[in-house]
């Protein structure tokens, strides 16, 4: 069985769903809830949450980014932890909110206290709740992409691999340059489409060279970017969020795949 830390009460976790999960891939949110509940947490999804503010922040729109940050902090007041199934959004919440709100003493203190409770989903399961295995089946050979924000801002590297090693039927084959950017970068791919395409083209070549059935990652934006490129290249490689596999919730068609395609 998976292990959890000893506690007399179940921690209250607020799930920060993320815009892409909410609008494009809700199954990732449901998988996150299942994993958190299996880890002994009481989970809620505050209805007042919206965007983390990263697109505005990265585009220099400080006023809107501040408003979104303050809304998020208020929405998650009272939770022991704030967990996001995205290294990119979690990095924004944890590291950039204190900087964004640092010029006002009251807001700065709120942001600091908030940031201490923020974790990326898989790192929370392993590093905070002591998860060492899951009970899931996935008969597939997979490769794993390390997203930039999760890896460099939050230190997410071995945690997903540790849990994937316990999935029945799963074989992990590491791709070359797994830690290199996929070219998405949020607004980067919009501002610099030619550069973005060149980066993802190299990434999909590395993915294909590892000969997987399925590509996994912890950020939906990265997965959508890579899945889209592989589809245009005619590659028959699925793409899934790691939480879906760890939760044993893989009935949903792969990212970018229709129900008809799956049939």
Plain-language structure description:
It is a single chain. This protein has 263 residues and is of the alpha/beta class. The chain folds into two domains: 12-126, no CATH class; 131-262, Rossmann fold (3-Layer(aba) Sandwich). The chain has helices at 19-23, 26-38, 54-58, 62-75, 87-100, 105-115, 121-128, 148-154, 158-164, 188-191, 193-209, 220-232, 242-246, 259-262, and strands at 12-15, 42-44, 81-84, 118-120, 137-144, 168-172, 214-217, 238-241. The protein has a four-stranded parallel beta sheet, with helices on both faces. Helix 5 packs antiparallel against helix 6 and helix 5 (87-100) crosses helix 8 (148-154).
Features of this protein?
single chain, alpha/beta, Rossmann fold, four-stranded parallel β-sheet, 13% strand
Topology diagram in text:
Elements: E1 12-15, H1 19-23, H2 26-38, E2 42-44, H3 54-58, H4 62-75, E3 81-84, H5 87-100, H6 105-115, E4 118-120, H7 121-128, E5 137-144, H8 148-154, H9 158-164, E6 168-172, H10 188-191, H11 193-209, E7 214-217, H12 220-232, E8 238-241, H13 242-246, H14 259-262
Parallel strand pairs: 1-2, 1-3, 3-4, 5-6, 5-7, 7-8
Helix pairs in contact: 5-6, 5-8, 7-9, 11-12
Helix-strand sequence:
EHHEHHEHHEHEHHEHHEHEHH
**Mean pLDDT value:** 94
Beta-strand residue fraction: 5-15%
CATH architecture annotation of the largest domain? 3-Layer(aba) Sandwich
* Number of helices, where a helix is a run of at least 4 consecutive DSSP H or I residues: 14
**Terminal residue distance:** 34 Å
> What is the makeup of the main sheet?
4 strands, parallel
Total of domains: 2
Low-confidence sequence ranges: 3-7
Indicate the CATH topology of the largest domain.
Rossmann fold
Based on secondary structure, the structural category is: alpha/beta
Find the count of extended strands (DSSP E, 2+ residues).
8
Strand order of the largest sheet: 2-1-3-4
User: Class of the largest domain in CATH?
Assistant: Alpha Beta
- Overall geometry comes to globular
> Helical residue percent?
40-55%
Radius of gyration: 18 Å
